[in-house]
Known about the structure:
Blueprint: H1 14-26, H2 32-35, H3 41-46, E1 51-53, H4 80-91, E2 95-99, H5 111-124, E3 129-133, H6 141-149, E4 154-156, H7 166-169, H8 175-188, E5 193-200, H9 206-218, E6 223-228, H10 245-258, E7 262-265, H11 275-284
Parallel strand pairs: 1-2, 2-3, 3-4, 4-5, 5-6, 6-7
Helix pairs in contact: 4-5, 5-6, 6-8, 9-10
Amino acid sequence: MERKPKWLRVRYNQEAVEEVARLLGELKLNTVCKEANCPNLGECYRKHTATFMILGSRCTRNCRFCNVIPGHPLPPDPEEPENVAAAVERLGLRHVVLTCPTRDDLTDGGAAHFAAVLEAIRSRCPGTTVETLISDMQGNTAALDVIVAARPEVLNHNVETVRALQGAVRPQADYRRSLDVLRYCKKKEPALLTKTGFMVGLGETEEQIEELLDDVLAVGVDILTIGQYLQPSPEHHPLARYASPEDFARYRDMALAKGFRHVASAPLARSSYRAWEALEEVHDLH
Length: 286
């Protein structure tokens, strides 16, 4: 595997990481930061922020880009909503991102549990804003209605990669279904900020990236994230290239020119990295 370029090498304060990890361990909580081996773990933990991965740490799908472990999940933990809210309060978070592994074993894909966690956060920390980073929930519109009715400030669902690579990268998902999820939620609640993200370095072409931008803009997406794919292991989808910081600047300019309201495009950008900045910037535009 090609050596990582200097702009992808990160250092972090181990003491700060362990402090947040201890709190999460006490409350039996998972973070996508740790489970997905996110390169920004150190920075976010140092700032006492985390993306909470609710509904367990096992995924019913096996996407070839992802480091979350596939397997048979446990039933949702009824104590998790209050435990997440307690962590939000103790960490003093102003913006929370909730995500989950895909739970195709649950009739509603976990939507009711999302709503319960969001309600618990609002009850304990009424000033905290919430972003829900959801799976496609198999396109179940009743489940999506539950998410929208819970009134997150941002609804995020990632398309992950260009149309041509969907089958190779996320074989149990569907590009059109992901677009339909984003379109449905925006149509259901036009004031809801919608968000999606994708990776580069999987083998996509410039033309395919532009097609993706047009597709997600057409379904009403407000906020976009673009980051570098980092191959978790030799068994995962092969890395095709490391895009340069100049490439990411070009993608950002291209997306903004097309009409997105906020674009985070950088080698280490991830779907929930500095998510509060995107929310603040978009609100400043109102």
